[in-house]
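Sample entry (375 residues):
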Amino acid sequence: MSALQSSIQSGEYQNVGNYHGAPASLCGGQPCCPHGANGFLPWHRLFMVHMEEELGHALPYWDWTEEGKVPPLWESIKAPIQKGAFGRCSSDSFTRRDPRAQVDTDQLKARVEVALMEETFEDFSEELTIPHNQLHFGMGCDMRVIDTAAYDPLFYLHHSYIDYVFAFWQELQRLRGHDKVPAIQELADPLPPFNNRRYNNKSITLQNNRVRDTFEYTAKYCYKYQDLKFDSLTPAQFLRIHSPVPMHIFIGIVVPKIMPNGYITFDLCLAGRCVRAGKVASFGIAATTIINIDSQEINSRSHKLMKYDVTDLVAEQNWKADDNLEAVRTSSLVANLPKPVIIRRLGDKPHVVEVPQGKTPADYGDLLDSYSISA
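Predicted structure, serialized as tokens:
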């Protein structure tokens, strides 16, 4: 508490919070943090290291898969917002949060478990985004948007746990024999604004600011987690209990990369009988209007295909993995989006997409280019 108060008084806490969101003056008019991209987990790991350096203490984490109440650690401290940015729920310059914060520990745990089952970095990151966004949205007010979320001290307790899950997955990968740094295109890219001496006065993040560096976190940043467990299981126990599923089934939902805040809900149907499949929360930029979002052309520059694992749901309904399933969007934040698709993955084979009746792959722009299309 003393370290946080001291950082706030010096103004550095606000400067660091500005790395994540508004005012968007550090990274060419956009928030510096990548969301919905491969840089999401590496950037936020570097961000946690940076705040630890600022505070001079190891950041604690909030395991929201086990504890549904907001930790009381920093709740008595008024957290300021950087000049030039504005809070979502107040007229002053301090963060606010919904006092009726919603945390569904069982649902969050289930989505983290799904993420940990993934064996590629890209798929793991994409699946972990779902509970990440859900927690942000459930907190309300300033935690719901990229612009102001990092001014709330709770942000760091939340993202320290995201980093913990990332570290747990890395240990799973080591045990699986896949512990090499992923071969992703952005591997050698620096993560702004950590590479800019004008904004970054912390040598550890200034000198180790590439995506690659973050995968070697113990060597590069001198930290490790004392006791890696998820759902009371060590990584080795997790692998023994959670055997690979022969076939994974996903609902693929097209969403804009920048969109209003809220939930998208969807059902899974077979032969006209539908069951509630799930919901995903958006975590975007605060804006009074998002111009022309409904009329944007569908492509990978403006949209992404978000996968939501429904393998367990199919089993619960006693449906077969190869049944003629259909996904239906039941609520949406944006109009004129193509229908959800069904995605299947058998073992380590490529994902296969089933396009809904009456639609063609062209309706999805280039979002399906990396998938095989079912005949």
